């Protein structure tokens, strides 16, 4: 699609810009995603099935660890902290599900800092994230009780930032074909 050239005449006419020219053209509602993004059943390639299983594993591992923290808060008899943590967990679950569905449904190549990022790179990130979360679950006692909670929290927050950044890139428009001219 060729860029539109504006003339002086265009500025004197009241005109509503098309939706594609908005700052966030893909944003039609808050956190749009489909539950079918997580379904490993159906007619998909093996890559799709493995990607969706990885997304489900990440969601289950994070939810399981958050449930463990809620149980600890419940046993400490801190009612207000429990209610606040529960509300934050619900929002975090929905936001993580949105990030994962955006990453899992990413189409086409994106240009990031001059490098072309393809579907393979998003799949590699999901594999990396699933392995990091598996290691977090397996080494939870060592990270929290042995080394202190700081190491676990740093990894946990780092993964949050990575999910947000990768989902942001996944929402970008597809890059055009490579031109050698």
UniProtKB/TrEMBL annotation:
Q: So where does this one cross the membrane?
A: 53-74, 80-103, 124-147, 153-170
What does the UniProt keyword field contain? Membrane, Transmembrane, Transmembrane helix
Would the keyword Transmembrane helix turn up in this protein's UniProt record?
yes
Q: Which domain of life is it from?
A: Eukaryota
Protein name as annotated: Uncharacterized protein
- Specify the species: Saxophila tyrrhenica
């Amino acid at each position: 699609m060729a860029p539109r050239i504006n003339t002086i005449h265009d500025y004197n006419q009241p005109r509503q810009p098309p939706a594609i020219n908005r700052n966030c053209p893909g944003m039609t509602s808050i956190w749009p995603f489909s539950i079918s993004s997580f379904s490993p059943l159906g007619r998909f390639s093996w890559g799709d099935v493995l990607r969706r299983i990885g997304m489900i594993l990440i969601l289950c591992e994070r939810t399981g660890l958050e449930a463990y923290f809620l149980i600890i808060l419940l046993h400490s008899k801190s009612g207000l902290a429990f209610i606040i943590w529960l509300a934050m967990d619900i929002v975090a679950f929905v936001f993580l599900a949105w990030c994962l569905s955006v990453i899992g449904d990413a189409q086409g190549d994106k240009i990031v800092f001059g490098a072309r990022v393809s579907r393979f790179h998003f799949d590699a990130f999901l594999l990396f994230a699933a392995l990091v979360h598996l290691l977090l679950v397996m080494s939870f006692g060592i990270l929290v009780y042995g080394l202190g909670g700081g190491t676990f929290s740093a990894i946990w927050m780092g993964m949050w930032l990575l999910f947000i950044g990768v989902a942001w890139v996944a929402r970008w428009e597809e890059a055009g074909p490579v031109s050698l001219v």
